Amino acid sequence: MDKLIDLIKYVLLGLVQGIAEILPISSSGHLIIFQTITDIKSDDLTVEIFLHIASLLALLIYFRKELIVLIKGFFNYLIHRKEESKKHFNWAIKIIIATIPAAIVGLLLEDIINDYFSSMLSVGILLLINAFIIFYTSYAKGEKKVEEISYLSSLIIGVFQSIAVLPGLSRSGTTIAGGKTQKLDKEEASLFAFMLFIPVSVGAFIMKLDNLGEALSVNGVLLTISFIIAFISTYFALKFIFTLIRQGKFIYFAYYSIVVGLFSVIYALINM
Question: What is the C-alpha to C-alpha distance for residues 252 and 162, in angstroms, rounded to an integer?
Answer without folding.
Answer: 24
